[in-house]
């Protein structure tokens, strides 16, 4: 048995990538830094950090469901942002997905991200329920 399980959220994962979208190790789920790239490789919400944040959390939702969890299981997020313009508006998006139970969070301002045009990249850690 493998020490961990790769979670792709039901989407095919390109073999050119040398990382996994998420990895479940026991009850821990580690979600890689994620940008608002869609299945065709196009950036969702160019120039709009709020739209990008919402799309990233939608992607997280697919990964969490595939791993047997939900947003209530996320215990930590890290946001990497290239701008603070409208960043405060992403708090409303967090409320949409987390309700009133928020994970710990860290925000880091960076000079740039690998995905051209991305304004935000988010990673997360979740503690999942035991597998049945």
Count every beta strand, where a strand is a DSSP E run of 2 or more residues.
6
The class by helix and strand makeup works out as: alpha+beta
Major sheet: arrangement of strands: 1-2-3-6-4-5
- Overall 3D geometry? globular
Kindly report the average pLDDT value.
Answer: 95
What is the end-to-end distance? 17 Å
Rg from C-alpha positions? 14 Å
Helix content: 10-25%
Q: Could you name the CATH class?
A: Alpha Beta
Describe, in plain words, how this protein is organized in 3D.
By secondary structure, the protein is an alpha+beta fold. It has a single domain (21-127), classed as RutC-like (60s Ribosomal Protein L30, Chain: A, 2-Layer Sandwich), CATH 3.30.1330. 20% of the residues lie in helices and 27% in strands. The protein contains two helices and six strands, in the order βββαβαββ. The protein has a six-stranded mixed β-sheet, with helices on one face. Helix 1 runs parallel beside helix 2. The radius of gyration is 14 Å and the shape is globular. The chain starts with a strand and ends in a 5-residue tail after the last strand. The model has no long low-confidence stretch (mean pLDDT 95).
């Amino acid at each position: 048995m493998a020490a961990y399980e790769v979670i792709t959220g039901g989407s095919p994962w390109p073999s050119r990538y040398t990382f996994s979208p998420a990895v479940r190790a026991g009850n821990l789920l580690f979600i890689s830094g994620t940008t608002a790239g869609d299945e065709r490789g196009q950036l969702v919400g160019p120039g709009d950090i709020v739209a990008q944040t919402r799309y990233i959390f939608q992607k997280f939702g697919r990964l969490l469901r595939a791993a047997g969890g939900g947003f209530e299981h996320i215990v930590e997020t890290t946001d990497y942002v290239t701008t603070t313009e409208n960043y405060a508006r992403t708090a409303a998006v967090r409320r949409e997905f987390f309700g009133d139970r928020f994970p710990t969070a860290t925000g880091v301002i960076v000079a740039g991200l690998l995905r051209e045009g991305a304004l935000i990249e988010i990673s997360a850690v979740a503690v999942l329920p035991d597998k049945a």
